[in-house]
Structure formats: structure tokens, C-alpha cells
Amino acid sequence: MPLSAGSLRRRPKFAAPLLSPACLHRLSVPGEFAARLDDDDAAGVGEEEEEEESGRRAAAVLVVCPLGKVWRVELRRSPAGDGEAWLGGGWSELAAAHGLGEGWGVVLRLERRGVASLRVFDPGFCLARFCTPHAGMRTKDRPRFIKLLQQEDLEKMKIPEKFVQQHLTETYTNNHQNAIIVCPLGKFWRVELQREQPDVLLRDGWAPFLAAHDLSEGNILLFRYEGNMVFTVEVFLQNGCLKEYKTAALYLTDGTEGPSNAPQQSAAKVGVSPVKRKRTRRIEGTCLEGPNRKSRASPISVKVEPHKKHVSIVSQNSFTKEMTAYSIHSLLVSASASAVFI
């Protein structure tokens, strides 16, 4: 079923899959994301004076962490107008409080002006859990893992080992030969699974998936596991911003064959309203062709006369029978036999 263009709108996001030691004190963000996150009304009088002294423009933003705590962090932008921006004051304290270190990853999602939510990924590229849920309790966040594409990932990609151990049991990997990837365009891609103990690889169908979405080394992929070997994926550019895709109609895509030719409804069928269909069915029930015979007229060509009633001339005890070539031949043979007998 085609998806509307509005359904493709996503909240702006920024991904940093591999934090360096410098990122623990000052996290650089793209100017495009900073412009949407910046809240012009958030800065106070004291902060404005500090901006004049330092020659840098700063704004206070709120970062909502995984446990729900809200941190106040400074968003600074270069006065040179080169688009350089970073999270400064308050970021190092936030990183230390959550145990972030080198090799960790973060994803920021813009909630509204001046407010962003934070997801943290551990060195195993899996979504970090800062508390263990009680037995039988469902968590809001579905399992996720983040992947920075390297050269060796362009032909086949290894699913992080920690993610396989935690969420992909042997029952799934042994019984399922394929994984289904739901791309940002809403299409479904079948990718063959290859089991190499203890690794699980996405192999046949993976390279065409990357080519169809114009992905190469340096792109960032964020996978969310829906269960039953189905993954949804979000794509980020090399600078960490969410990549936007635009399309008019989205249909099923099957593996290496590319987009399948999904059957489309004819214009006549699509144009019939539910009310007209209901009226058409009523007319067919009282048509001269009988109560059990469907009208072959197009639903659009049927004219509804509200003040005229169709009267059936077929009695309730009669029945109608469709004549076929076989029935006509049998009738003629029996008639001929009767004539010879007479």
C-alpha cells in the first residue's frame, strides 16, 4: 500500500557511533542539527554577557537521558558562521554520570526547540540498559544496535555478537534463512542470514540494499529489532544527521530482484465511494437478473434512481440457471432422442 509523503517525516536526529576521548568533554554536532535544536529564548541575561566576552554564541538546551533525568547543557556555535557547533558546559558531567567512555555511541533526537532525548550505545554497539527490568515487565525501548559502515561491511555485515547473544536465539537463526529489513522508505528487503559460529551475517541481498539506498563507507545505520527476524533501520549521513528519503509510492521489495510490481487498483475501482458500493449491492439484489445473479455493470456506470423501485418478475419459488455449452449440447441430444422415439 502506498505511503503518503507526510508519513515519511521523521524527527531530526544526530548519531555519533564511536565517541573519542575529546567527545566526552565537547561533543561536536552538525550545524544543521544545532540550528533546529537551538532555542533562541533559552539564554539568560548572565549568559548573554558571557557570550559577549567569549565572542561565542551559547544557548541552553535540555537533554532528557534514558532514566528520565533532565540535564541542562550548553549549545555553542562558532561566530565565524562556518556551521561549527558543539555541546559544551554540562555535557562532560552528563557523560560521566552515565559512564560514557571511548568507543561508546550516542543518538540525540530533537523533541522540540531546546529539548532533545538521548539514547546511549555501549562498546558492543547495543542499546545500553541502565536498569534491569523486573521479570515479566516489558520495556518501552525495543532492542537496538548501531553500526558504522566499514569497507568490510559493504558485501556482508556482521550483526554485533552481543546483540546476537541477547536477542537472537538459536531457534530464530536456525529456523530463519532470511531477515526482513524495513528501510526508511517503508519497503521490505529480504537478506539471507549466514551462520558462522558465533557470528550471524547479513549476506545475499545486503549489497543491493546498500546500493539502492546510496550507502557507502562512513554511513551510520541504526537497527531496531521488531521480533521474528524483522528489523527497521534508520540511515544517517557521514556527518551524523538523519538521511531523508523522498518518494511518491512505496511498495514491497524482494531481495536482489529490486522493487516488485505490486498490483495497483484501477482508477475506476479506486474512485467508487463506500456509499455508492452499498447502493450498488442493493440494486444488484433487486435486479431483473434474479436475486442470486451479480450484475456485470461497472459500479460507476450504475445510475441510482431514488424515486423508482425495481420490481422483480421472477417468483420467489423459481430459480435461475446459467446455460453452458455442455448443458445446451445435452439438451439438444435429449431432444433428438425424443424425436426419433416418436
Secondary structure: elements and pairs:
Layout: E1 13-16, E2 27-29, H1 31-37, H2 45-54, E3 57-64, E4 70-77, E5 85-87, H3 91-97, E6 105-112, E7 115-121, E8 144-148, E9 157-158, H4 161-167, H5 170-175, E10 178-182, E11 188-196, E12 199-202, H6 206-212, E13 220-227, E14 230-236, H7 267-271, H8 274-285, H9 325-341
Parallel strand pairs: 3-7, 10-14
Antiparallel strand pairs: 1-6, 2-5, 3-4, 4-5, 6-7, 8-13, 9-12, 10-11, 11-12, 13-14
Your description of this structure?
The protein has 342 residues and is an alpha+beta fold. It has three domains: 1-8 and 134-264, At1g16640 B3 domain (Beta Barrel), CATH 2.40.330.10; 18-124, DNA-binding pseudobarrel domain (At1g16640 B3 domain, Beta Barrel), CATH 2.40.330; 267-341, no CATH class. 23% of the residues lie in helices and 24% in strands. The protein has nine helices and 14 strands. The longest helix is centred in the C-terminal third of the chain and has 17 residues, at 325-341. The radius of gyration is 32 Å and the shape is elongated.
